[in-house]
Known about the structure:
Helix content of chain A: over 70%
Low-confidence stretches of chain B: none
Number of domains of chain A: 1
Shape of chain A: elongated
Helix content of chain B: over 70%
Radius of gyration of chain B: 21 Å
Number of strands of chain A: 0
Mean pLDDT of chain B: 81
Distance between the termini of chain B: 15 Å
Radius of gyration of chain A: 20 Å
Number of helices of chain B: 5
Oligomer: heterodimer
Structural class of chain B: mainly alpha
Number of domains of chain B: 1
Number of strands of chain B: 0
Amino acid sequence: MRNFENKEKIVQVSGGLKIISLMGMLFWGQGIITFLIMWISGAQQPGENGPILEPNSWHFNLILVSVVEFIVWWNFWSFFSRLKSGHLFDPLTVKRLNRAGWWKIGIWIYSIILMCVENKLQRQLQTHVLSDLLDGLFVGVGIVFAAWLLREGQTMEEEQKLTV
Amino acid sequence: MRNFENKQKIMKTSGVMQFICGWVALGAFFQGMVILGWPILHIIRHLHSPAPSSPDLHSTFWFWFKLPFSVLECIAWINIWNFFGRLKAGHIFDAPTVRRLAIAGKCMLTGAVYVYIFDFLLFLLQNPALNGLGKLGDSTGELMGNLTAGLAIILAAWLLREGQMLQEEQELTV
């Protein structure tokens, strides 16, 4: 008889992580609305040295980042929802995690490009954000990697179903 | 015929991840060494030129309270390094592989809670000599991030354990 204690634990913790993901979604969702309002009203960037980019492009960048982060957290929310309902090694569960990882990598690439553009405009080398950016890459690759591990489990489960 | 393409990808990427984790573990180890050595250096300096009231000497001892966090962080990264090493060798749904990840997750969770308690104590003490160390707002955000990361790692370990059980069942069937 198989021990279902482990699956119970996964389902329970997934519930907690689902709430955290929902909070992430709400955070980035309100970010989209706020930046959209600022973009429409044409508000200036707060700061001592004034805007680095033009206010419009600066708001557009923030909206874009918020949308992508929202998609990442939505995928996480969906992933944990599926885990909570007991679909562990399921194609859709794996797809959600994989997408979250790729979007995270996408936002990393965009941040690198944005940093290069800002450096070019300011004519100085901005390196203090580089460690944050590398963190983002590591997290993104880690998530995609976890999705691959789940896919391996999915393949195994499918094989087992065929055997039985 | 089973497709081993996915397993190949896992094994290849594990090599790179192991390399990165090795460097991070080394960084955590040196951080621990600095935390351990800094107050000792201060004591030696104080013995050579004793000042009547040195707030520096008192505050440097607080550095040692950060040492358990550094040790936990180092253990966590060594375990993650080992985990990727095992994946690289092809042991995906294996008991020691799962154990390594679970230990790393538990260490990260414990470390996060420890740092928060430490910062909270500093905040309560409001010692002027420690000004700037007890930034409670920052550490609450950090705690949330580390707790989520720790929980996610533990969850990944449980998922791998589920895969391990599947593999064991499959081996029994075959």
